[in-house]
Amino acid sequence: QVELAESGGGLVQAGASLRLSCSFLGPTFSWYVMGWFRQAPGKERELVAQITPGGSIYDADSVKGRFTLSRDNAKNMVYLQMNSLKPEDTGIYYCAAQDMRTSIYDYWGQGTQVTVSS
Fold first, then answer.
1. Which of 48, 58, 80, 108 has the highest local Cβ count within 10 Å?
2. Vertex 98, ends 95 and 100: CA angle to 5°?
């Protein structure tokens, strides 16, 4: 069983930075692709970025050049550094784990709120 816990959200002004952290509790962190999703009010949940165990990264176009995803395989942690935040980045951010054997995001954190004021 895998448990994920996010931290680091908050209320900031446009242009500010935040760093989200996700702790992975469970066996074999290296089997999992780790992703960050967000859901804005009234919108579908969307993939923001994901990182493979080997460090290959996918970023959504909306965050390219502003957000940086990283993972520490020794500490079972994933980080999302968010710079130059915009009001449209507002939403609940979820950490998720995708089993590489199934390619399905099976495990989700409880989410952390990010609010960017203009």
1. 80
2. 155
Structure tokens given for 47: 């993939």
- List CB contacts of 46: < 8 A, sequence separation 6 or more: 37, 38, 39, 60
Query: If we measure between CA atoms, which residue out of 45, 28, 34 comes closest to residue 78?
Result: 34
Q: In Å, how far from its chain's centre is CA 6?
A: 8
Q: Which residues contact 68 (CB under 8 A, 6 or more apart)?
A: 80, 81, 83
Residues near 53 by beta carbon (within 8 Å), at least 6 away in sequence: 29, 30, 31, 32, 33, 71, 73, 100
Tokens 């994901």, located at residue: 50
C-alpha to C-alpha distance for 61 and 49, rounded to whole angstroms: 10
